[in-house]
Design brief:
It is built from 15 helices and 13 strands. Helices cover 38% and strands 15% of the residues. An 8-stranded parallel β-barrel has the order 1-2-3-4-5-7-10-11, surrounded by 4 helices. Strands 6-8-9 form a 3-stranded mixed β-sheet.
Length: 446
């Protein structure tokens, strides 16, 4: 097994969070209403009726959280801006108080020697825009570009690189196709325009960011897709699933075209959403990095439901997280090799922007240490094989609001008592801190 410390000189270590999952303070300082505020009020939508109204109270406790990051010795903090703090209704002038908060956070990070890596959209669309159609409406992409410009104008002198979108695949499928995340629509394949309009938003925002001399990344949830057997039917289903989960949100960026979705009865215009010039904008040269969020592979078999060209099959014989997700570290290595083989010179440098697991251990979270160690071994193998991976951000710094699961799943290096808001570092926090220190010492020595 490759030594997990054997990573390239200059490799950047980080953690990730998201605004709605940690900030709280949903009614303060002019913040507008988001689709998650609305969704959490729907009976039965979120376990235990939980919401992000308070979450980790990061809005007030951010200095304490930055101190925890400083102690970890991080290079990078990946977080998201709440669109509704910057533009309460998703249009119009900026809300100064919202930008003031992010300016305080950015300055605090820089004082701690940590580079901010903000994500502009992590699923918390302004409710006002959802009322006009949300990501099914093309105009939302243009509103997003205006929001990006407002954020960059305030913070771009201190924040050199920006992630436009987080996991547009998950947001489209869970939010618009299946209805298990906000905004809770159940459109199935009629949700595909939400894919294109998110990518169009990326292209429009990227132009604004590049015009200000800033680097641009995008982060997506990607998975190696494996057939349940060598049967032709299973292999065909695997290709169909791979096209939807992986290629739909990567081919347009790097190849300037959508994958073949004919297995779904869908043409290249994605139900009329694609217009002339859109793909040129989406694939404009200059993507400075690809964020890869990896949690597990996917095993696919021939369809059992006539409405879909695939069926998901269980992955047997591996450990599982508290969430029930299979733990397959070599899947990260497999995924990175697949990306290089598929996109070759078009593949930009990679940052692993999310990777982590939920456990039911309070403080002695040995399963999380084992999970992270295995995935970092796989990552070191990939870099040893010449794949350009620049950094790694584990999910997550803090236990937080885990979307539809409420507060029942804990992904944090730091335990949060949600009643008292007390933060207590777990065993994995100390392990990650020591790993970073050892990696840094090794880089200096070499």
């Amino acid at each position: 097994m490759t030594d997990r410390h054997d990573l390239p000189a200059g490799f950047r270590w980080g953690v990730s969070t998201a605004a709605y999952q940690i900030e709280g303070a949903v009614d303060e300082d002019g913040r507008g209403r988001s689709i998650w505020d609305t969704f959490c009020e729907r009976p039965g939508a979120v376990k235990n009726g939980d919401s992000g109204r308070v979450a980790c109270d990061h809005y007030h406790r951010w200095p304490e959280d930055v101190a925890l990051m400083r102690e970890l010795g991080l290079d990078t903090y990946r977080f998201s801006l709440a669109w509704t703090r910057v533009q309460p209704t998703g249009r119009g002038p900026a809300n100064p108080a919202g930008l003031d908060f992010y300016e305080r956070l950015v300055d605090g990070l820089l004082e701690a020697g940590i580079t901010p890596l903000p994500t502009l959209f992590h699923w918390d669309l302004p409710q006002a825009l959802e009322g006009e159609g949300g990501w099914l409406h093309r105009d939302t992409a243009h509103r997003f570009a205006e929001y990006a410009a407002l954020a960059a104008d305030r913070l771009g002198d201190r924040v050199p690189a920006w992630i436009t979108l987080n996991e547009p695949f998950v947001h489209m499928v869970y939010g618009y196709a299946l209805g298990i995340h906000a905004p809770g629509r159940t459109l199935m394949l009629d949700a595909l325009p939400a894919a294109h309009h998110q990518l169009l938003a990326h292209g429009l925002a990227a132009a604004e960011l590049r015009g200000r001399g800033l680097d641009v990344l995008i982060a997506n949830n990607l998975t190696p897709v494996r057939p349940a057997s060598d049967a032709p039917e299973d292999r065909a289903a695997t290709e169909a699933y791979d096209a939807l989960h992986n290629r739909l949100f990567t081919d347009p960026l790097l190849l300037g075209r959508y994958p073949d979705l004919s297995a779904y009865g869908v043409g290249p215009d994605l139900h009329g959403a694609v217009r002339d010039g859109d793909l040129d904008l989406i694939s404009a040269p200059g993507l400075d990095g690809l964020g890869v969020n990896y949690y597990n592979p996917t095993r696919i078999a021939a369809p059992t439901d006539p409405g879909l060209p695939f069926a998901e099959a269980p992955i047997e014989g591996v450990p599982r997280t508290h969430f029930g997700w299979p733990v397959v570290p070599e899947g990260l290595y497999e995924l990175l090799l697949t990306l290089r083989g598929r996109y070759s010179d078009a593949l930009p440098p990679i940052t692993v922007t999310e990777n982590g697991c939920s456990t039911d251990a309070a403080l002695d979270d040995t399963p999380r240490i084992d999970y992270l160690a295995g995935h970092l071994d796989a990552l070191a193998r990939a870099t040893a094989d010449g794949i350009d991976v620049r950094g790694y951000c584990t999910w997550s710094l803090l236990d937080n609001f885990e979307w539809g699961e409420g507060y029942g799943e804990r992904f944090g290096l730091v335990h949060v008592d949600f009643a008292s808001q007390q933060r207590t570092p777990k065993a994995s926090y100390a392990w990650y801190r020591d790993l970073i220190a050892a990696q840094r010492a090794k880089s200096v020595a070499s």
